[in-house]
Amino acid sequence: MIRVARRLLLLPIAFLLIADISAQVDFCAVGDVLLDRGVRKVIEQNDVNYPFEDIDEIINKNDLALFNLECPLSHAEDGFPINKRYSFRADPEYAKGLKFAGFNIATIANNHTIDYGKSGFLKTMEVLEEHSIYSIGGGEDQNLAFQPLLVEKKGEAFAFFGHLEFLLEGTTFNKDQPYPAFGQIDRLCSDIQKLNSHIDHIIVTFHWGQENVAIPTKRQISYAHKVIDAGADLVIGHHPHILQSIATYKNKLILYSLGNFVFDNSDKLQKQSVIFRCQFENGKLVNPELVPVYINNCRPELASSQNTREIFEHLNRVSQPFQTTLSLNDSIIKI
Fold first, then answer.
1. Cβ atoms 113, 72 nearer than 8 A
2. Does the first or last residue of the chain, that is N or C, have fewer Cβ atoms within 10 Å of its Cβ?
3. 0.90 exceeded by pTM
């Protein structure tokens, strides 16, 4: 069981810091999870657990498991699709598959969770919480969207933030209406600084960068460095749909993009992915590593030896400009 609080008040933070017996906290994170379009067809042909059946044992071993939900979870009557080229909606019952897989934290700060309008966006948060999956990076207004998810597990205190880099196609932004946490990097850094002395581990997820580009943009690099300067301990990125560079800055890890995870893209680079995992213990991140996976029929499976080698070589190549050394050890990529 994890203890969860949302408000940035002294009392909840003090509550979170009531220590259990100190122990290692296992954490993992993956890339984009789409439950519509081609994935919907696969689910309808099988069942809601099908996209996760090859990797659920890996995810379930972790105390905290994070993913990027790349679609709203709502009924057709819960809203209306916004006017854009790609507009997704997944049935709320599909959340059962996410729960089966072992996920308990979803970032909804992205360019598709509001595809079914603001009412569909709020419904998504409701559906996730009904399945004990806590959302980050979204809310009824920007004040709520920027509030971190505060979690205590085994005596270690965590704060999770979700942030969107760009304005969404087909939407109108109003800070007083439902929307992902958007575009205020200085505000995000200020919020991180306020928490830094109270929280053991601050994890920031960004939806950013350019699709199908393996090297992060200057803005991605700038944002990552800014939040680490403010006190973030780990930065995790989504949106490019392929694996991007891995970097360290001030001894903190930056995963610029974890690529796709459950998706229907057909390009080989879009099918190559990883499960990032590490442990948190005594206020430190230890044993960071990547489990290579390959997306087959819309669902991730453990990569073959050939695909593992190709994923490792790709990540090594795009990470070298950031002075990051990777090694391959028994089908696991060590960072």
1. yes
2. N
3. yes
